[in-house]
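can u do me a favor
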């Protein structure tokens, strides 16, 4: 594999590579992210789709999102780990699930969204920006975020 950030699913059947700089990361405390991560919050690294490549057996499941668009959720067929999402409004970007990185210490959120749904015991660094829900124009925020303005 070429140089870059690597990761994969829990069983190792699905592997991915993100070339270029480490994409910015945000944490989302919404109910959907709690469900998809089966944990307290979701971690997303927003990468350019062209910088991202994946190998292995994946399946897609898609759901409506609150932007009035659809989120395609991609997971390993073998072990079910959610690996990345694609929002139909920003098809040129992928939202890679932070816990799947080989080096999870690189998944450092530079913003927290949906903190109104945050579990009380999750304590946030006051220096990191938060949004009670999500930025008004989430698609634009993601696009700007992805170019590095929030890092
Ligand atoms: Zn797997
Ligand atoms: Zn969320």
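np, heres the sequence
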């Amino acid at each position: 594999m070429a140089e870059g950030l690597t990761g994969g699913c829990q069983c190792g059947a699905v592997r991915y590579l993100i070339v270029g700089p480490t994409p910015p990361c945000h944490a989302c405390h919404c109910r959907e992210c709690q469900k998809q991560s089966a944990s307290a919050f979701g971690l997303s690294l927003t990468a350019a789709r062209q910088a991202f490549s994946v190998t292995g057996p994946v399946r897609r499941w898609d759901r409506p999102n609150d932007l009035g668009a659809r989120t395609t959720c991609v997971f390993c067929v073998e072990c079910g780990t959610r690996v990345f999402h694609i929002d139909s409004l920003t098809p040129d970007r992928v939202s890679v699930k932070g816990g799947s990185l080989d080096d999870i210490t690189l998944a450092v959120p530079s913003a927290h969204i949906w903190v109104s749904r945050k579990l009380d015991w999750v304590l946030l660094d006051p220096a990191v920006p938060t949004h009670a829900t999500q930025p008004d124009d989430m698609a634009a925020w993601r696009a700007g975020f992805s170019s590095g303005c929030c890092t």
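The longest strand covers residues 42-48. hope that helps!!
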